Amino acid sequence: MSTVNLSLENFDEVIEKGRVLVDFWAAWCNPCRLVAPILDELAEEYEGRLLVGKVDVDAETELALRYDIVSIPTVVLFQDGLEIRRFVGVQPKRVYQQELVLRI
Asked: What is the pLDDT of residues 19-31, one digit of tens each?
């Protein structure tokens, strides 16, 4: 499964159930481009147990403000609508995997 594009219209509904890993990113952000393929791999590896979503902070400034996103990439893990972990900056795949193993 690929990642899901999130907007103000669908964000709350998508994150309210289960585990959702949300990538706050922007098209001009080079570090964001490094994180994107890692998250795509995680979406496939954890399909059915984890949803991976993407929020373009330029298009969805209200969501970025709501979650105090001051640096990108920022990846937030939600469980049933609640933030349970935040990763700021480029992280290796194993960092995400270690957290997901604890929670899935």
From this structure: 999 999 999 999 9
